[in-house]
Design brief:
Length: about 400
């Protein structure tokens, strides 16, 4: 993951220049993205007909992480940046989250289990439950990270002036007409007030509003829901929260049916290269390659949508559904390695993407968007789609 490695060398601090702010926001986009395969793996490995509450709880968080990626992309565009969603942001799991401190462990791909939920809880751990960031060290909670982004943004507006900070064109903003999500909604970021609301939405959906267990969905006229950490803690403890429970309370509501045996155990460190060794005796290798090719296409749609083509986000939906179907083909197969299969391990997605897969995804996305535009009677910028968005990232 080349971008993240470059970010680590820069060190973690409140950004005091526009360039550093854009770097931090690119890192924030990567933090949001890197959690999605981890959560999807926990969700995908749940056996059909079991752990219904857990499945939909994790799924809701995944959808909100997609929302967070989009809001961060809007914020990065608003301050004159260009989001990067290509091979440089694809992690090799286990992966470290950009700018995180030593107390934040690497995150790996794990099947639905108490260990996986403990990882989820550490990722979403609220600031109120986390030691302060040590001087010169990385962030220890995602909320602390966004605190630094917010502080840097406000400082730059005070010192440079609002119009020198918010220089991005409104045509690059993704709005609610481009993105549907049942947990909150996307909104354009065009000024400091919108930027602060975006940061507030991301952090409060993760760790709760004002040291409560609830998220900020009421801001959008929706029913309040548990923030991510508390959703995961319900699954981990097997008990739901009551309406008056506080963040440090154990859940006091009804029991939740959690069956830790209702999952396909996986070997989370598996790679496509491991599967290829058994290509003649198992279809797993082909399934894994097909999954990763769909993952590449999804990321290319996101990159296009985040870089001046907001309507392209809607065209990613069929790919999301196909990704789910490809996952089902993978996780129901025993691991092709006989030794791992004997231990009860199943195959799993690796979320690896090679440069040739990204090249093929570029061509496929360009064809699909051209066809969609022809049906809609609209021109499409094929040259823009084929270009490498990294060239525009300053």
């Amino acid at each position: 993951m080349r971008t993240a490695l470059a970010l680590e060398k820069a060190g973690f601090a409140v950004p005091d220049t526009l360039e550093k702010l854009r770097t931090c926001l690119q890192a924030a986009l990567e933090v949001e993205h890197l959690t999605i395969p981890v959560y999807l793996t926990g969700m995908y490995t749940i056996r059909a007909g079991t752990n219904t509450a857990a499945f939909y709880g994790i799924r809701a968080v995944v959808m909100e992480e997609m929302l967070h990626m989009t809001l961060v992309a809007n914020l990065l565009n608003a301050v004159g940046g260009a989001p990067v969603v290509d091979s440089r942001v694809v992690a090799e799991y286990p992966a470290r989250l950009p700018f995180s401190g030593e107390s934040v462990p690497s995150i790996g791909l794990q099947h639905f289990s108490p260990a996986a939920l403990k990882t989820f809880l550490r990722i979403e751990q609220p600031r109120s439950m986390t030691p302060p960031t040590a001087p010169g060290g990385g962030w220890t909670s995602i909320g602390q990270f966004y605190d630094a982004v917010r502080e840097g943004l406000e400082h730059l507006v005070r010192t440079l002036g609002h119009d020198r900070v918010f220089t991005g064109g409104p045509e690059r903003q993704i709005g609610p007409e481009d993105f549907y999500n049942s947990g909150g909604e996307v909104f354009p970021v065009e000024d400091l007030a919108g930027a602060l609301l975006a940061i507030e939405t991301v952090t409060e959906q993760g760790e709760g509003v004002h040291d409560t267990i609830w998220n900020s969905n009421e801001t959008f006229g929706e029913e309040r829901e548990l923030a991510h950490w508390f959703r995961f803690n319900e699954i981990y403890t097997g008990r739901s929260y009551g309406p008056h429970d506080r963040p440090r309370d154990r859940p006091s509501g009804p029991l939740i049916d959690v069956d830790w045996d209702g999952a396909h155990p996986i070997h989370g460190d598996s790679k496509v290269a491991d599967y290829r060794e058994y290509e003649r005796t198992s279809a797993v290798y082909q399934h894994a390659v097909a999954f990763n090719s769909r993952y590449a296409v999804l990321l290319r749609y996101l990159d296009s949508a985040f870089n001046g083509h907001p309507r392209h986000l809607a065209t990613a939906v069929p790919t999301m559904l196909e990704l789910r179907d490809r996952a089902a083909q993978l996780y129901r197969n025993p691991h092709p390695d006989p030794a791992l299969a004997a231990r009860g391990c199943f195959a799993s997605a690796t979320f690896e993407i090679t440069d040739p897969q990204f090249d093929a995804a570029d061509a496929e996305v360009a064809r699909n968007l051209a066809a969609a535009s022809l049906r809609a009677g609209e021109p499409v910028d094929l040259a823009g789609l084929a270009s490498d968005s990294a060239e525009a990232f300053v």
